[in-house]
Amino acid sequence: MAPFYWSPERYATFHACLRRYYYRYYADAPAFRPVRDLRIRAAWADELVRRGAQASLREGLDEDAAAARLLQLLRDDFRASRQHGYRAQPKTTDGLFEHEHDIAVPDAEWKDMADRAVDTLRAFLRTDYARALAAVPAADRLAAGEILRFDLFGLPVDLRCDFAARTAAGLTAHAWTRPGDDTRPLARAALAWLAVNRWKAAPEGVEVVEYDFPSGPPAVHRFAAEDMDAARELVHDAAYETRYPLADPERNIAREQDFDFTDDETVCRSCSFLKPCARWR
């Protein structure tokens, strides 16, 4: 069994449905591997817009180049999903919930989705916020969309950093969030420790900027040395919660029967594991 690591996404999955959490992170039967990362098409398009924004900052793309790349990526991913490419290469190919469950996506809906995604990326790149990030000198940039792993006092943490840069005062790390995201305080605490642990920033020089992607507004959170212990405890408590149902937490061993199903069927209707799930078989 692979070692345990914690992430805000893992915590969110745990709270959405315990059985989904088991299937996503522990089930090793062949039936579960091809569907591990299915997305409904709206969430998939939103994720590609976010990746496109990160790539434009990382590679210095202008608006037209970023929009063209996003449209091509949408086309390529949609075609690969429609051909069920994720079944053969689940780790490298995105899959759409609609294609796995044979839900028709009319051409007009596909075009409207793609157009809205490109328009959203263009609108983001025109914001003062995005222009300020694009103006950060390359020598000061530390991350733009990478998933980074670091050790938080014995706890491996995987964290996506949407943007990070050194500043005159210290370091600023950005989290692109959505309204109603319950993992915000956890991601904020983890980002502060990422800055201190990975980039050796002084706590009093760390800023975490939460930005409601794609249109804002940003909210700035500053940290002091006395805040860091509370941030560490918050993340460690969340990790302990997700490890509590394990049959053997030290070896990260789980038993399916220890992870119950959600009572919320709306969660089931967009779940990657709808077909192999014991509740619906």
Helix content: 40-55%
The overall strand count is 9
Largest sheet: 5 strands, mixed
Helix segment count?
11
SSE order in H/E notation? HHEHHHEHHHEEEEEHEEHH
What are the defining features of this structure?
281 residues; alpha/beta; five-stranded mixed β-sheet; two-stranded parallel sheet; 11 helices; 9 strands; 45% helix; 15% strand
Written description of the protein model:
By secondary structure, the chain is α/β, with parallel strands linked by helices. It has helices spanning 8-16, 18-25, 41-59, 63-82, 85-88, 97-100, 107-125, 128-134, 184-199, 227-243, 265-268; strands at 38-39, 95-96, 141-143, 147-152, 155-160, 163-166, 171-177, 206-212, 218-222. The strands form three sheets. The protein has a five-stranded mixed sheet with strand order 3-6-7-8-9. Strand 7, helix 9 and strand 8 form a beta-alpha-beta unit. Helix 4 (63-82) packs antiparallel against helix 7 and helix 9 (184-199) crosses helix 10. The mean pLDDT is 92.
Question: Could you write a compact summary of the structure shown?
Answer:
By secondary structure, this protein is an alpha/beta fold.
List the helices and strands and how they pair.
Elements: H1 8-16, H2 18-25, E1 38-39, H3 41-59, H4 63-82, H5 85-88, E2 95-96, H6 97-100, H7 107-125, H8 128-134, E3 141-143, E4 147-152, E5 155-160, E6 163-166, E7 171-177, H9 184-199, E8 206-212, E9 218-222, H10 227-243, H11 265-268
Parallel strand pairs: 1-2, 7-8
Antiparallel strand pairs: 3-6, 4-5, 6-7, 8-9
Helix pairs in contact: 1-2, 3-4, 3-7, 4-7, 9-10
